[in-house]
Amino acid sequence: MHENLVILAGGASSRMKKEAVLDNLSPEEIAQANERSKGLIGVGSSGRPLMDYLLWNAKKAGYKNIYIIIGEQGNLFKEFYGNEMKNNNFHGLNISFAVQYIPEGRIKPFGTADALFQAVEQYPELNSQFYSVCNSDNLYSAEALRALRETESPNAFISYDRDAMDFPLERISRFAIAKLDANNQLLDILEKPTEEDLEQYKDAEGKIRVSMNAFKFNGKTLYVHLKNCPVHPERDEKELPTVLLNSVKENPNTTIGIPFSEHVPDLTAKEDIADVKTYLAKYYPDLNWNSKN
Predict the structure, then answer these.
(1) What is the pTM of this model?
(2) Number of alpha carbons in the 13 Å side-chain half-sphere of residue 129
(3) What whole-number distance in Å separates Cα of residue 134 and Cα of residue 176?
């Protein structure tokens, strides 16, 4: 088992910043959505950010060392989770920050694979260890995060049952789907699947499986694929699923899809804020950092 969790929080949040006319958000919530990184939007009790709840679940899952990848303008994270770049103590979690710098000639960050590559360059100890990676704007359960810690597979991802996701069908249909063999080893990831593709990609249980960017990696074998990740031809970004598939091609049967059937709250756009607030009020009514985990 490992104790390292890397949280991706350096993205541009462009979909969250799009204009939206909503009568269920306050002016303050709209302002936060336009100005803050998604994981810092105050959706919880007393206006605490979504990241609090992710860190809560990470601590319950047994993680000790948290590396938050922030953008060049990400200083607000330090106001919540520690003023120093390294080794801040947040309720028993050791929190450090890595910065995803935007390359010269670009306006936006260069994608999730670039974010992770910059992080392991800043914290090279990760390249000789195992670590998990997840998004800052998704609330993964403690059980899912614990499964990543406890799996004996060198690499892994949480393989979610698509039908258990509580999202509109149109949104779910855009999710990339994973192809697994009979032993749940990853074979392929398909973007923009058609109805015909879905039948071919069902797993041994007859389920369509999707990734929500919750991974476990072997830092030693992943590094070369992070460093050499090609740019996605359509999105012009370097992306973690590409890195994962390149690793699988070179090291077959080293990446298991851990099956889970549960919803993963997500803050992608302003329309998600009210839903996430309702979810937190129902399932996390009293977030008490001082209670025993």
Answers:
(1) 0.95
(2) 16
(3) 16
